[in-house]
Amino acid sequence: MKPKVAFYWCASCGGCEEAVVDLAEDVLAVVEAVDIAFWPVALDFKRADVEALADGELAASFINGAIRTSEQQEMAELLRRKSGAIVAFGSCACLGGVPGLANLYSRDEILDRVYLEVPSLVNDEGTLPEEDAEVPEGHLTLPAFFDSVRTLDQVVDVDYFLPGCPPPGHLIKAAVMALVDGTLPPVGTVLAPDVALCSECPRAATKPQKPQIKAFKRPHEVVADPDVCLLAQGLICLGPATRAGCGGVCIRANMPCTGCMGPTGRVVDHGAKALSAIASLIDSTDEDGIATRAQEIPDPVGTFYRYSLPASLLHRRVTSAHQ
Amino acid sequence: MSTKIVIDPITRLEGHGKIHIFLDDAGSVDRAFLQIPELRGFEKFVEGRRAEDMPQITSRICGVCPTAHHMAATKALDDLYGVDPPAAAKKIRELIYSTFMVEDHALHFFFLGGPDFVVGPAAPKADRNILGVLGQVGLEVGKEVIGVRKQLRELMGQVAGKPIHPVFGLPGGVSRTLTAEIQDEFRAAAARAVEFGTFALGVFRDVVLSNPEYVELVTSEAYTHRTHYMGLVDAANNVTFYDGKLRVVDPGGHEFLAFDPRDYLQHIAEHVEPWTYMKFCFLKDVGWNGFAEGPDSGIYAVAPLARLNASDGMATPLAQEAHDELISTLGGKPVHHTLANHWARIVELVYAAERMSELAADPEILSPDVRTLPTAPPEEGIGVVEAPRGTLIHHYRTDERGLITSANLIVATQNNAARIAMSVDKAARWLITAGEVDDGLLNQLEMAFRAYDPCYGCATHSLPGQMPLLVQIHDADGEVVRELRRD
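ok -> structure tokens follow
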């Protein structure tokens, strides 16, 4: 009998679903190999159908997106109960992702900005969306939001992690096939190579072997040489601290790695690791020189924790950004 | 007010949504509400980020149309730093953008909205999807749909880094040059895309136009609204996606506004309702007068049909021909029939493919000069493109280091939000009488918004998600008296 699987999305942009569609004709191979019991983007099975399954009946559930609402938490818990394995699919489920940067602000700061402050609003009455709204015809409710974005494994136990924003197609295919063939690795494994991106970078031969960064540049300030290591050119590329598997697609487009594949194994905090990897290349030993270099990195959180703030030791800003 | 019907969530769109229908004691529709239950707040958490990161951060608003956000953001950076990209860079950007419009419109026509027509609004639920479309048009054709999209998206990835979340946009240009090999691949792909567009038009003609019932459905009052329309146009008032001025026509089809997108705050405003996280755009020049159509309401529409209505035509020959056929068949501009969006989408697909073809053949795209480096201090920037789902505006302010101090985002589906809300309400009134509801009717209700190809993930800068259809009918005490499920 073919293994039953589910695909589900939480707080994500839909790009992970597009990545599955982008498998193109390979999708047909996946569809033949497994019995898809739940995939809201493509098939009309319902939450009730999942609830009707026996516990553990699904061989695996692939869940993308972070957790921001109670509904997402409920679905994650439901799929956890029904599944042998849970695969955190994509950067948001694994690490919190770009929307995890919302942990730099409070829920109220977000609502105020969106509904009271932006310059295009005409909202003299200060109307805000309400969890319980009375309209002349009756009563309408909206779901409430948690104050923070959480990773999937901060909500339920996760068996495997498939990183990337979105995950590379060949890794998606390999993960599904490992499930079908019964060759999945030990629980807790990240389903991507456990080496740094530099190992598969086409520019690896020109990577600095010793501290040599005399000044950090920002991508819009320079025309990058397309053949030379971006770090050697003073651009902050997170390749040395980021897991391989994507083939260096951003670097091939002459832009630095921003870290979407997350850290290699045994690294707890991707941003801290990336920061230390980059700092070790600064060609300066005196405090003033180092302070000057630091000034050249004006948004360290957005730079080093672009995809991983909720998963990091920091997790979120404790006080308001404006206090 | 004895009964409330809830459709939660609605399907085959990008993003969450639910519909509440209040019935009166006679079982007629009192009012139908389309609710968008989510929010992510990009406008807030981009504060403090480096401006040059915005094209990559804001693309995460939507993984279905990341190229649109990437491009609007990149153009806002041009404006922020006051840099004019070299001609080659603009052409490379527009080449990628045209490629994106082809594959995105193809996705909607064949996978999301098309099944309503190609398979049929009253077809069995299980067939109203891409597989049903393949059953109608044949597996070979299906393979061509998948094959064309794959080829286009792989090319986008080669130039822009990745098709999902591109990286190549920088203030003043693009991050890389093109090779002669890639240009050859684009030329071949563009030729295939033009052929594919012509084929898609043929499918629409064969399936929809040759069926009098469908034509009647498209032109029926249930799916008709007389509103303003907005879209980007070029100097000749032709439809354009990458750059131009914003033009608005009134419900009579006369030019009402034509303005530089940088002046959007003078003309476009947002209204807040307490029962949804969606904000509703309206024309400031007219004002918010509730969910009403006509010349005295500031409500306007965007996206394919609106773009055709707001323009004088298309800049390429095959698209112009297709445009003329649509307009003459439906009685001249403006066309107020919402379901004609599906047809307009294919007209635009043909235009995007022809434009792609022109740009791919242009020798200048091989120029090594693809960057103008910024020299002026940054302060404020506005960038506008036509996303597949309508006008998309990014507006940033920064400090002198180029860190975002405030951002405003007006996203395609938001422009359409008020008209979509009216469409759902109107369709519900026409379709539901005496409380009688069945699956076919509910699908026809969903068709009222699906034609817009709405992206509520984008519109609330929120969390796309699709779930199956569940309709619960409650009595006055809130007890579920009847349940309809899509099996």
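The two ends of chain A are 59 Å apart (CA to CA).
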